[in-house]
Specification:
Structural class: mainly alpha
Strand content: under 5%
Helix content: over 70%
Order of helices and strands: HHHHHHHHHHHHH
Largest sheet: none
Radius of gyration: 20 Å
């Protein structure tokens, strides 16, 4: 008995979205890996780097360790980033499709909800790898605690209370994912639509898709993705700082207090360092990271969709 053609088409589209999302995740994470590491060191106020800025921090990493140290933790980041992005983009397409079929509210609401749900889904599945990656990126050559991914996972499971150690900081991540991925996908789709509607002569390719919709050129894709990253990170950044403090709390006796819970950690960061130097610490490097990260991610995903014959056009 042959499988219905419609079902086969759905599975094929999902598989193609998964591949496109995975490639997008790999490209975007690699592009900003050095910025990711310095962001973690600044957020958690590492003793060797807490007094430095972004560029002086880069110089200190190279001086104290070496150039490749800028990419420390990137292997586990790749192991996490590929499935994370693949799940996120695929889930977004599916959630958006089902919301449009089931509810008649504004497409803006559907886009935000689909993005938020996609982010929560992807983060829930890949969160332990994010915690391990943060631990590896936080340590320096002169004070190495973990020798690799497996060693970090085993030590955390044995010494820090089992599985909950890998999920420390999980709730601020989930709460942060709602505004982050919600605004990210919403902003990208909105700016993409406005670009096509009001500046199609400058920002769209000459050819059209198989459904008759216009498609953005590469610079426009990067522009829309960068705008999405800037908006999303502004809303979600304090929860990202809270998550990092909780993930790294058990690496130093002086920071054990941050492992107690999300609200208490958020409160302590605010009391001790305030808003600018606490909840938004490292925001400058985060913007330097967020814009190219989202730009490369969204642009690569859109290009991959075109290469795999998944329509990315919009009818105006």
């Amino acid at each position: 008995m042959t499988r219905p053609k419609k079902k086969t088409g759905i599975y094929e589209a999902v598989a193609k979205n998964f591949v496109a999302g995975g490639v997008a995740g790999m490209c975007s994470k690699t592009a900003v890996a050095p910025l990711d590491r310095i962001k973690i060191l600044l957020q958690a106020q590492h003793e060797h780097y807490k007094h430095l800025g972004v560029f002086s921090g880069f110089r200190e990493i190279v001086r104290r360790e070496n150039f490749l140290a800028l990419y420390k933790g990137n292997l586990v980041q790749m192991i996490r980033a590929v499935p994370y992005a693949a799940i996120q983009f695929t889930a977004y397409e599916q959630y958006k499709k089902h919301l449009e079929e089931s509810f008649e509210q504004s497409p803006h609401v559907n886009g935000f909800l689909a993005g938020a749900a996609a982010g929560v889904t992807a983060a829930s599945i890949t969160y332990p790898l994010d915690t391990i990656r943060a631990r590896l990126a936080f340590q320096v050559t002169s004070n190495t605690i973990y020798s690799g991914i497996k060693h970090a996972a085993v030590r955390m499971l044995k010494e820090e209370g089992g599985l909950q150690a890998l999920y420390r900081g999980f709730w601020p991540t989930m709460l942060g994912m709602v505004p982050y991925t919600g605004f990210s996908f919403y902003t990208f789709e909105k700016v993409k639509y406005l670009s096509m509607k009001y500046a199609s002569h400058y920002l769209c390719s000459e050819h059209e898709t198989n459904t008759g919709g216009l498609i953005l050129n590469i610079p426009a894709k990067l522009l829309c993705g960068g705008a999405a990253g800037a908006v999303a990170h502004t809303f979600s950044y304090p929860l990202d700082v809270t998550k990092r403090r909780m993930q790294l709390a058990m690496m130093n006796p002086a920071t054990y207090k941050y492992a107690s819970g999300m609200l208490s950690t958020l409160r302590m960061i605010y009391i001790e360092n305030g808003i600018v130097k606490g909840l938004y610490r490292g925001m400058s490097v985060n913007f330097l990271r967020a814009v190219p990260f989202a730009a490369v991610g969204f642009a690569t995903y859109e290009v991959m969709k075109q290469m795999l014959n998944l329509d990315t056009g919009i009818k105006l």
